[in-house]
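note to self — DONT lose this again. spent like an hour looking for the file last time. sequence + predicted structure for the chain T wanted, 120 res
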Amino acid sequence: MNLERNRKMKKNKKSLTRKEELIMLSILNLKDDAYLIAIVDHLSEITGKKVSLTSVHLPLSRLESNGLIASEFGEASARRGGRRKKIYEITELGFEVLEEYKKVSDRLWENYPKFSTPKE
C-alpha cells in the first residue's frame, strides 16, 4: 500500500533540469520584470556566460506547460513597436518544486562546510 502511494507521489512530482531551475530562480529575482530578454540578460550576468534567447525560450514553454510558471502580457509600449511583453511568474506548484530542490541541494552540500549555508 505504501509502495503504491510512493509511486503515485513520484509520478506527480515535477522534475527540473538545472537550466529550468536557474530560469525559475531568475523569474523570482526579476519579479515584475521577468520577461524573456530580462531573464536572458539576468542569466548571462549571473553565470558570466552568453545565454541565447532560444536556450531560455524553450524551457520557459516547457515550464509553463508543466504548470510551474504562468505568464500574462504586460502593456504595449511605443518603444517595443506597440508589442506587449510576456511577463512570467512562478505558480504555487513551481514554488513547491523549487523548495524541494533547495532542500535536496542543501542536504547534498551540508557535508561541505566551506560551501553549505548556516542552519537556521
